[in-house]
């Protein structure tokens, strides 16, 4: 198997990623940020999108937190080129860097978000330490990623409608961590103040008004009910890791 990061490296791949994220990752990213919005006590003023890719989270972050300054960091310059072209805003910046080598003097953030990239990090223990170090006193970090410890039935259902992306998704699942492995990495990073959810969104969102709004929003991503069902199965393949600042009360 190739390194799971290899498919992001060329200009053509970066452009193609836009369509992939819109079709398959967009709904999950939206749901993740809705979940984050419930966990954040006050509206963040500085947000870091770690592993931002082509900036797909920017419109969602802007809708949730309109006053925040957003910094996107990614290791792939081709992805950043697409992001800079799509989002020209004085309150948004994109910087080249990685989860284990933050750009120089990047500062602290009230909210650090990383979606579907944790499995790609070469040194996850160091990355986790860096994330906690760059949280403000009342900040929150949120990592959402694929989990490997899912049933074969859920995986099979989720892959039914991925068509041309099926082999890619299978490779990414193989590169992912189990929940136990994530907790082991947190222990090695000396991070004890965290919370992990491994339930599907149907469990995490119990409020009927929230469910109605989310269902309506998800419908914007597809008009194919079978594809929507497949994507909902894909949502069940995620875990949600929240990290609090050191000595958080």
TrEMBL record:
Family annotation (InterPro entries): Methyltranfer_dom, SAM-dependent_MTases_sf
PANTHER family: TRANS-ACONITATE 2-METHYLTRANSFERASE, TRANS-ACONITATE 2-METHYLTRANSFERASE-RELATED
Record-level Gene Ontology MF annotations: methyltransferase activity
Position of the signal peptide: none
Pfam families, sorted: Methyltransf_31
Every Methyltransferase domain range: 45-189
GO biological process, one term: methylation
Keywords carried by this UniProt record: Methyltransferase, Transferase
Keyword rRNA processing applies: no
Domain of life: Bacteria
Protein name as annotated: Methyltransferase domain-containing protein
Transmembrane segments: none
């Amino acid at each position: 198997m190739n390194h799971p990061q290899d498919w992001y490296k060329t200009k053509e791949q970066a452009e193609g990623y836009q369509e992939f994220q819109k079709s398959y990752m967009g709904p999950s990213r939206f749901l993740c940020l809705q979940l984050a919005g419930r966990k954040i006590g006050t509206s963040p003023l500085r947000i870091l999108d770690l592993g931002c890719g082509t900036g797909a989270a920017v419109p969602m972050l802007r809708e949730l937190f309109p006053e925040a300054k957003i910094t996107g960091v990614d290791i792939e310059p081709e992805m950043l080129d697409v992001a800079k072209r799509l989002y020209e805003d004085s309150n948004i910046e994109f910087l080249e860097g990685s989860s284990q080598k933050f750009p120089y003097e990047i500062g602290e953030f009230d909210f650090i978000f990383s979606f579907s990239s944790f499995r790609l990090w070469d040194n996850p223990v160091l990355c986790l330490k860096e994330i906690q170090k760059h949280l403000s006193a009342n900040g929150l970090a949120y990592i959402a990623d694929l989990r490997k410890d899912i049933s074969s039935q859920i995986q099979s259902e989720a892959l039914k409608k991925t068509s041309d992306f099926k082999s890619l998704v299978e490779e990414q699942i193989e590169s992912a961590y189990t929940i136990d492995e994530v907790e082991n990495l947190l222990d090695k990073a000396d991070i004890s103040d965290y919370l992990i959810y491994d339930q599907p969104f149907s469990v995490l969102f119990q409020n009927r008004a929230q469910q109605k709004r989310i269902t309506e929003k998800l419908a914007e991503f597809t008009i194919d009910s079978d594809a929507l069902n497949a994507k909902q199965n894909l949502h069940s393949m995620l875990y949600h890791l929240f990290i609090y600042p050191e000595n958080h009360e």
